[in-house]
Amino acid sequence: MESSNKIQSNDKPLSLLHITWPIFIEILLFMLMGSVDTLMLSRYSDHAVAAVGVASQVMGLVTLLFGFVTAGTSILVAQYLGAKNEYKAKEVFTVSMIANFGIGIIISILLFFFSSYILKWMGLDPDLILRGNSFLEIVGAFMFVQAIMMTISATLRSYGFTKDMMKVTILMNILNAIGNYFVIFGPFGLPVLGEAGVAWSTSIARIICTILIIYIFMKRIGFISFKKVLQSKPIQHSKNLFKIGVPAAGENISYNASQIVITIFITMIGTEALTTKVYAQNIMMFIFLFSVAIGQGEQIIIGRLVGARDLKTAYEHCIRSLKLGICISTLMAIIASLFSKPLFSIFTDNEQIIHTGTVLLICTIILEPGRAFNLIVISSLRAAGDVKFPVMMGIISMWGISIPIAYILGVHFNLGLIGVWIAFIADEWIRGLLMLWRWRSKKWESASFVQSESVSETVPASS
Predict the structure, then answer these.
(1) Where would you find the membrane-spanning parts of this chain (predicted)?
(2) pTM of the predicted model, to two decimals?
(3) Which of 79, 232, 329, 398 could form a disulfide with 368 if both were Cys (CB 3.0 to 4.6 A apart)?
(4) What are the angstrom distances between the C-alpha of 195 and each of 62, 129, 130, 343?
């Protein structure tokens, strides 16, 4: 190990910067993909933005179901690589791919046939249900493609090949933007397909890039046969994947489910409020992007360090990264609030939406430092194998603090979106401080899933 900020990945050193900047670009472009959809649809209809925004929230929640597997995959692969046991890392990937592909097929079938019922349950107006369903049933039908992409990308990141994922995401954004242009604006006399067209554009871009990412994985790492995996410990790998993945994904699912409940509250306030929320959160994504990237980079590095049993360096690395994340997210929130009117004007000329959105971005200056605690420290706890505490505290805070406050202030006392944002602030800060306390307690030091594994296990003989 060269320093406390640098670890060895295969034959090349990895620092937080080396790992994080491609992740940052990748997430930025992934967020841009959604924002491009929103921006282009805003030229088509504000109601289309609201409908697709709610449908995308459902997609976000469903995508987290794949997190049951991918969360465990990235952590176990990183820990095995830290313990110098690459074959076990490949075994984990193979088991993960089979599990996520099966889950993806089931989800694709359910979303294709039941998308309209889901949107109706969320309380949307009939017009919004029709628009949202056009998007949700098409994108939903190809969710198995997303499952494959997420599993491979999680493994590539844990190996340190973050630049490859960045390049694939660049291509996916280009394909998506070109597709959106044709289906929304209808050049050369082509039909305007609206929400359904955006759905097809998104799905086709994902399919092409998934094929590419499979090729990259074969070139960089290579597959091992499932027959060989059966000769080792597939059941044990499955248990470890879900032992990590269920609590880790559970925290994310709880968050997104609570956001859906709060979205239902916002539909009670009105369609304009719902549209404002979609625009505000599209802007806010670029504020907390830095913390997300640092958190994902930390998860890789902490996993490696814990696998190598360098616990002192792991502890110090998380604290330094947390300080960096808080400073950057606060600065970005201040900048966004100063330019709030021009930012909202990109999406709409509705003065009420711009005014309310400006107030929300001012509140975000308080919100984002609290979110940085959660994004960075929770990632570090997961990487160390301490996955139960974050989800337990998350459920208590989201459902016991965020949702009640959002309803009481936003709906009952008619504070609208400002009341909802106050609820977000309370939730993020309370959970964040609890996560920091947990990290400082060092109870995670005994939670590694590979510490008792032999690092000298041999590759099973070919049959």
Answers:
(1) 16-36, 48-81, 93-118, 138-156, 168-190, 196-218, 253-271, 283-303, 324-347, 353-377, 389-409, 415-434
(2) 0.74
(3) 329
(4) 19, 12, 10, 23
